[in-house]
Known about the structure:
Elements: H1 2-29, H2 35-63, H3 67-71, H4 73-87, H5 103-110, H6 113-132, H7 142-164, H8 179-209, H9 214-225, H10 227-240, H11 245-263, H12 272-298, H13 306-344, H14 350-358, H15 368-400, E1 410-413, E2 423-426
Antiparallel strand pairs: 1-2
Helix pairs in contact: 1-2, 1-13, 2-9, 2-10, 6-7, 6-13, 8-11, 8-12, 8-13, 8-15, 9-12, 10-12, 11-12, 11-15, 12-13, 13-15
Amino acid sequence: MLMLDIMRAVTGFGGGGLITMATVINSDMIPFKQRGMYQAMQNILVGFGAVLGASLGGMIAESIGWRWCFLLQVPVSVLALVVGYLVLENPPCIVPVLDPKHPFLSAMQRLDLSGATVLVIGLGAQLLGLSLGGNDYPWGSAVVIGSLVGSVVLLLVFVKIEATTKAIPMIPLHLLHGWQPTAVQLTNVFSGMAAYAYMFMVPLYFQAVRGDSPTAAGLRLIMPALATPVGGVIAGSLMHRGYPLCLNVRLGTATMLLGNLLALTMGTTGTRWKEFVYLVPANLGLGLTNPSVLFSFVSLTEHQEQAVATSTVYLIRSMGTIYGVTVTSAIVQNVLLARLPETLGEAATEELIERLRKSLFSLNELPPVLETAVRALYCDALRIAFAASSAFAFLAFLFSLAHKTGSLQRKCEQPSTGDEGGDAKDSLGH
């Protein structure tokens, strides 16, 4: 299990870098005014891949085994590696090499390794405290309090490192100076929290509340999840037509909020077509929000800073996704832990409670009356968690109202490679 966790972390490390680098390459090659449609095309491919992976994962695991969920990605990854090697060229290095005789060591010195290490440990301690609190340990225990306090200290140390490091900082603090970039990143982090909390809970609702198999739950997600790349295309089209970025962000976060509020109305019974309809707005809003937030932040920076601005957006959004899943998971587990003994009545044992909290397949082993009661309890727990994700979406919408970013327009151009790929300065387009 430890090896599985390590390898998943390595995969996530590479996958996150690929998505960021794809956007950075777009930033270098495509004029700022035209990036909306190119980003939309990228969102289609990323969204389609995410839909296939999330929706078909259950079917693959139930039919040929969970290992094939990983093995089937190997030939695709090899193909991507070959295509990238053949198509992408090495551009001239714009970062000064400190020691030409040892370029690798020189490059490593420019990496913010200390900041990355402190950030990972700080976030890990925070997530550990949120996961253990009320679940394995009381909220007032030394382990939980120590984890949360220690994480705050480490995150403050991270900010100090970013402000003083001689390497290239992970999050350049000067990019966050002023209310506008701060408002954009607050929208970014809360929309990430809402989106991934929602995506975590919907499959759990299908399986724990409605009794669907992993395969059936995955198939029910395919069509609604396709709304995410559709939202990306709409966002790209609106940006290409000159609509202000701030309006795109507000439209996206408002649609996400609507979708999360609709999820609150889903119960243990009801027609299944409503679930299909109710799942569309949150996914559509996510597709609208992500590229609009990205370009809102990038439009506030100079062209030479757009790569690091892009990575900053993805890093902060990733932090939001981690928080969203962890908080809502803690809500569900704490509700189950507190109310399962009462729901099970005389049948309650520590072993049974633990199995019901950790494995949905254990629900099928209960007598019909108890199974119905426990599924209703899962529904109550998820409704509270959906209320939390709705609160995250509301905060994202609230901060989006402070955005004043305009359309994808430029004050001037300065070709860097003989075409229109270089922007000397990108404006807000007021």
